[in-house]
């Protein structure tokens, strides 16, 4: 079985690659990082180490293609693949789409393409980009044969600092949940991959707990001058804000999906202990990366805040504080952080949120965030 995976980064090697290898797939990694691809081809194996344990997995039967220099090879592999996956980041899906479209257009057999990104509807978005590269007749044919099931992927894989550039240290915990209702062809048999008919509760619970909580640690951590998530977790004030924000997002999740309070509380505790794993060193700059995307209308901060207002007719004060901290986020290496600062200068807090978060004029969050922002500036 052949899997073509776009994005040989942290989650690509440390999570998706590891599970696909264990399930018996040969994996072709596609990336634009020449050093990474050269090393994959030179060594044809890499190590996934579980943080805090002696357990390690050797991922073998792999090769790599640089899509910038060998696009035709990527197309050839997509034509033959039994599974196509991505972990490139939401903003890169449009860039990998043309080669996926080219590879899918002449296929006569069915295949599934799964976007393993931190967002709601990642595979739907990839599908939209892929179909946009095909004429209506080809698009209809590809759509008939290709499944684009959405997925929730959960494993914390920080940026790596090993001398061995392929080695990746990951947390032991993982969850990969895929929407079975959109699969085409044979079912997926991958140990550790859970198929569900309704992905919504899974992806929302994950995005609005793991990623919301992590974002609080990153943005408040950065606001208070901290470098790592661990440092943020050890700050009582920040920890209490994380808990507060997770109770606000949890309030909505419980109402929408009927999780019991006790069960959701347990989920939150598990997530907090994952964040605090002393064996993982995670930078606030990685977790806070791309603040414009993270302030998007369906992402981890705005969506739970908007829904909290709708369900409770009151302001979620802790989410508001982290939204203000996200607006104040400054990071030299982060292009979106710089863009956000320019937008703020040009449009002010309300104008910025109306643009990036799509909050409509007069939305109560606008006033609340502006007030919070002024008090933190
Ligand atoms: N790291 C984590 O803990 C988790 C990450 N995710 C999601 O996985 C996705 C990837 O995240 P990470 O692995 O952390 O990022 P990363 O930066 O480590 O990996 C992304 C990889 O994509 C490659 N890439 C960039 N442009 C490309 C292109 N045009 N074609 C092919 N490859 C390209 C990069 O060179 C890099 O190797 C994101 O959507 C993230 O939200 C989801 C769950 C956990
Ligand atoms: O990958 P993103 O969406 O930029 O956000 C970083 C977040 O993703 C994760 O890497 C995995 O869910 C978290 O560690 C963190 O909350």
TrEMBL record:
<feature type="domain" description="Mannitol dehydrogenase C-terminal">
    <location>
        <begin position="198"/>
        <end position="376"/>
    </location>
</feature>
<dbReference type="InterPro" id="IPR023028">
    <property type="entry name" value="Mannitol_1_phos_5_DH"/>
</dbReference>
<dbReference type="InterPro" id="IPR008927">
    <property type="entry name" value="6-PGluconate_DH-like_C_sf"/>
</dbReference>
<keyword id="KW-0560">Oxidoreductase</keyword>
<dbReference type="InterPro" id="IPR013118">
    <property type="entry name" value="Mannitol_DH_C"/>
</dbReference>
<dbReference type="InterPro" id="IPR013131">
    <property type="entry name" value="Mannitol_DH_N"/>
</dbReference>
<dbReference type="InterPro" id="IPR036291">
    <property type="entry name" value="NAD(P)-bd_dom_sf"/>
</dbReference>
<dbReference type="GO" id="GO:0008926">
    <property type="term" value="F:mannitol-1-phosphate 5-dehydrogenase activity"/>
</dbReference>
<keyword id="KW-0520">NAD</keyword>
<comment type="similarity">
    <text>Belongs to the mannitol dehydrogenase family.</text>
</comment>
<dbReference type="Pfam" id="PF01232">
    <property type="entry name" value="Mannitol_dh"/>
</dbReference>
<protein>
    <recommendedName>
        <fullName>Mannitol-1-phosphate 5-dehydrogenase</fullName>
        <ecNumber>1.1.1.17</ecNumber>
    </recommendedName>
</protein>
<dbReference type="InterPro" id="IPR000669">
    <property type="entry name" value="Mannitol_DH"/>
</dbReference>
<dbReference type="Pfam" id="PF08125">
    <property type="entry name" value="Mannitol_dh_C"/>
</dbReference>
<dbReference type="InterPro" id="IPR013328">
    <property type="entry name" value="6PGD_dom2"/>
</dbReference>
<feature type="domain" description="Mannitol dehydrogenase N-terminal">
    <location>
        <begin position="2"/>
        <end position="191"/>
    </location>
</feature>
<feature type="binding site">
    <location>
        <begin position="3"/>
        <end position="14"/>
    </location>
    <ligand>
        <name>NAD(+)</name>
    </ligand>
</feature>
């Amino acid at each position: 079985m052949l899997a073509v995976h776009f994005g040989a980064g942290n989650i690509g090697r440390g999570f998706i690659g590891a599970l696909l290898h264990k399930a018996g797939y040969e994996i072709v990694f596609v990336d634009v990082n020449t050093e990474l691809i050269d090393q994959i081809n030179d060594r044809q194996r890499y190590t996934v180490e579980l943080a805090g344990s002696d357990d390690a997995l050797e991922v073998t039967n792999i090769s790599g293609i640089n899509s910038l220099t060998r696009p035709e090879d990527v197309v050839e592999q997509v034509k033959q693949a039994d599974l196509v996956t991505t972990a490139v980041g939401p903003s890169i899906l449009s860039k990998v789409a043309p080669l996926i479209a080219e590879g899918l257009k002449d296929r006569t057999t069915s295949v599934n393409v799964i976007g393993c990104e931190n967002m709601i509807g990642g595979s739907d978005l990839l599908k939209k980009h892929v179909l946009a590269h095909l004429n209506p007749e080809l698009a209809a044919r590809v759509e008939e044969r290709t499944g684009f099931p959405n997925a929730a992927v959960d494993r914390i894989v920080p940026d790596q600092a090993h001398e061995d550039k392929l080695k990746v240290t990951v947390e032991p915990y993982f969850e990969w949940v895929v929407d079975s209702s959109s699969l085409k062809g044979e079912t997926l048999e991958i140990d550790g991959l859970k198929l569900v008919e309704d992905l919504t509760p899974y992806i929302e619970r994950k995005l609005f707990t793991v990623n919301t909580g992590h974002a609080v640690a990153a943005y408040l951590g950065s606001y208070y001058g901290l470098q790592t998530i661990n440092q943020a977790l050890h700050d009582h004030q920040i920890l209490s804000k994380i808990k507060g924000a997770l109770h606000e997002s949890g309030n909505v999740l419980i109402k929408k999906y009927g999780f019991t309070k006790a069960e959701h509380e347990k989920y939150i505790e598990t997530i907090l202990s994952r964040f605090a794993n002393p064996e993982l060193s995670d930078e606030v700059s990685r977790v806070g990366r791309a603040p414009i995307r993270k302030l998007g209308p369906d992402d981890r901060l705005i969506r739970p805040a908007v829904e909290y207002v709708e369900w409770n007719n009151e302001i979620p004060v802790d989410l508001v504080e982290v939204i203000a901290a996200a607006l104040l986020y400054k990071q030299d290496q982060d292009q979106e952080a710089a863009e956000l600062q320019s937008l703020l200068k040009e449009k002010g807090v309300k104008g910025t949120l109306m643009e990036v978060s799509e909050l409509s004029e007069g939305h109560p969050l606008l006033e609340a965030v502006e007030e919070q922002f002024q008090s933190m500036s």
